[in-house]
Amino acid sequence: MNVLDEKRSSPELRGYVKERIRKMQDVMARKGVDVTILMRPENVFYFSNFNPILISHVPYFILTRDDAFLLVHCIRHDHAVNEGAVDKVLCYGKWGATQAVAMDAMDAMRELLGGGPLTVGVEGDYASMNFLDRLKTKLQVKGYVDIAQDAVDLRLIKDPHEIKMCRISGELVDLGVTRAIEALEGGASEAQAATEGQYAMRNRWHEKYQQYEVSGFSNSETADIDTFVVWCMSNERLNYGCDCPTGYVPMPGDLTMPMSWARIAGYNVENERTVIVGHVNEERTRAYDAMLRARDNIFRMLRPGAIFEDLYFAAMKEYEDAGFGSILPGRCGHGMGLSTHEFPSVTKGNKAPLAPGMILTVEPGLMSAELGAVRNSDTVLITEDGFEFLTNSPRDKIIIKKRLNLTGPPLLEAGRSLTQAHESAIKKEL
């Protein structure tokens, strides 16, 4: 089989993409929009299944009432044709023998869209003033309509292809967190545990899923080529929310937290687990137990029709009852998909109902400089009559009771993993 044969979009996926385009064209008709120009990488991918990885030249997805096409620089033509899921790929710029509509993207739009006047749909939270001003010089723009939220709303309900990718991502982050916890139990530092977790995810991808890209969505200056991530932080740094692992080795009395993200074919899932090292103080114990109860309250309510705000209040009640009312989080979950943090949030004021096909995290956490943090995060899919866990790491209290005094970083001893070293050390003890 040719390499490209593995990466080309299936007829099934192309059908899903066509349906996404149709729904956006329905939005345009309702709002009186003649043409929509999308630039946000996640949205371009959603309507085309094309991720250039490095956006040295901006790709555009353009919809009219009865047509749609991907406009890319000539250097991206073959990539877009081979791996995208749209019928029409047109080009601007100059690269090799590829035919272009025009050298400049704006000139290409003028050639393709003709005269006006046009009402143009744009992503109001992404399109720059420079882009809008330049567009007015090339097209007869009658007015702009912000369609950013409409794109977000369309992405809320995942189709079967998206759900399949998120299930695979869930398998990988489970593995990443599991291996990181094993490493910590074996005496690893935060950085060693993170490395071991990422190594395990990459091996699983190599064994089972290498036909799927693991790249993220980048910008003109940075390429997000590898999205297999395991982080680990401890104690007061957990209050930061996110930070890089260090060489610190968690000690008895500590809270430490492996966190994992993985993106398969564009779709991202997360898993987080707070780990108790030995015995922690009364405040940390009380906070951890309240966190588990808060999660259980949400799980009992997860079904179509449940209100996001109600989930938040159900979780916060446990924290207030446990004496943590002064450090309540602003949210205790968020959407997942093409972005690591998507709309909607599980927060006060969000009175929207859950619906089948939504994918979100359940992560009621507490953070403070004194406490550190307690936060377990599972990604879930809302089904027709309830929900499905996409992540399946242990959901009860995780305590590292035995720590082996292993030395040296994992993965640097002739490819020997820390998990193998851990097993070997146990055998020697026995």
Question: Which topology of the largest domain does CATH recognise?
Answer: Creatine Amidinohydrolase
Give the % helix: 25-40%
Q: Average pLDDT value?
A: 91
* Basic shape: globular
Corresponding CATH architecture of the largest domain: Alpha-Beta Complex
Number of DSSP-assigned strands = 18
CATH first level of the largest domain = Alpha Beta
Which sequence of SSEs, written as H and E, runs from N to C?
HHEHEEHEHEHEHHHEEEEHHEEEEEEEEH
Strand content: 15-25%
Gap between N and C termini: 49 Å
Characteristics:
430 residues; Creatine Amidinohydrolase, Chain A, domain 1; Creatine Amidinohydrolase; 2 domains; five-stranded mixed beta sheet; globular; disordered C terminus
How would you describe what is shown here?
The protein is an alpha+beta fold and 430 residues long. It is 37% helix and 20% strand. The chain has 12 helices and 18 strands. The longest helix is centred in the middle third of the chain and has 26 residues. It is globular, with a radius of gyration of 24 Å.
Give the gist of this structure.
The chain contains twelve helices and 18 strands. The chain is α+β, with helices and mostly antiparallel strands.
List the helices and strands and how they pair.
Elements: H1 3-7, H2 11-31, E1 35-38, H3 41-48, E2 60-64, E3 68-73, H4 77-83, E4 89-92, H5 105-113, E5 118-122, H6 129-138, E6 141-146, H7 148-156, H8 160-185, H9 190-209, E7 229-234, E8 255-264, E9 267-272, E10 275-277, H10 282-301, H11 308-321, E11 331-335, E12 342-347, E13 359-362, E14 366-368, E15 372-374, E16 378-382, E17 387-389, E18 398-400, H12 418-429
Parallel strand pairs: 1-5, 3-4, 5-6, 10-18
Antiparallel strand pairs: 1-2, 2-3, 7-8, 8-9, 8-10, 11-12, 13-16, 14-15, 16-17
Helix pairs in contact: 8-9, 10-11
